[in-house]
Specification:
218 residues, alpha/beta, Rossmann fold, Arc Repressor Mutant, subunit A, five-stranded parallel beta sheet, 8 helices
Length: 218
């Protein structure tokens, strides 16, 4: 798994890199925030960010950039200042863990393993296989053999509703209540129109029409 480690204490960074590499991780070092920021779009499993970096780009700036670009990489913050404010701010910005300096390489490795294990479990839960489609709930992406399928927000919500309740028949009124919400007062024919578009985009989606009642995903 790929790790980016941003730490301006070079001796510490090199030591940690050796320990993590020994554990089988692919570790790239950055000694300042500016150089790390240039790689913010890279496909990485985990960023280890020192909060206080030399230069104008801090660890906080880097995690904000990651979230702005919708990165699904995990983040561990480290800081020489063992203060609750640092920890709280890091967690609020979306970090997965926080480690105060000085820390032992072994402790960091244990944190890395725990965070990556949680992340892998979350990714597994976020993926639904409905042959031949792979549905990523978090990214709201549909992957088909021919490539990506683009759905509108409402099309995706309707698809997700059926995928989570296979082999169960729903009336149009029930679908409206669950997908459009209880405050929708339009025609229930909007369900038919949306399903027609969804079937066109995903022609191997087996949604059965139950005449006079509603629909069921097989």
């Amino acid at each position: 798994m790929k790790i980016y480690f941003v730490e301006d204490e070079k001796d510490l960074a090199i030591i940690i890199q050796k320990y993590l590499t020994r554990e089988g991780y692919d570790v790239t070092l950055f000694f300042d925030g500016e150089s790390a920021l240039e790689h913010i779009l890279d496909d990485v499993d985990l960023w280890i960010l020192d909060i206080m970096l030399t230069g104008d780009v801090s660890g906080y700036d880097l995690i904000k950039a990651l979230k702005k670009n919708n990165s699904d990489a995990s983040v561990i913050f480290t800081s020489a200042r063992d203060q609750d404010l640092d920890k709280i701010m890091g967690l609020e910005l979306g970090s997965d863990d926080y480690l105060a300096k000085p820390y032992s390489p072994r402790e960091l490795i244990l944190r890395v393993k725990a965070v990556l294990k949680r992340h892998q479990r979350q990714q597994t839960n976020d993926l639904i296989q409905y042959d031949p489609y792979q549905i990523n709930i978090t990214k709201r992406e549909i992957v088909a053999p021919e490539g990506m399928i683009e759905l509108t927000n409402k099309e995706f919500e309707l698809l997700l509703f059926f995928i989570k309740h296979p082999n169960r028949a729903f009336s149009r009124e029930e679908i409206l209540r669950h997908v459009w919400g209880p405050n929708y007062f339009g025609s229930d024919r909007v369900v038919d129109d949306l399903l027609r578009r969804l079937r066109h985009k995903m022609n191997q989606l087996k949604i059965e029409t139950i005449y006079g009642f509603g629909y069921r995903l097989l």
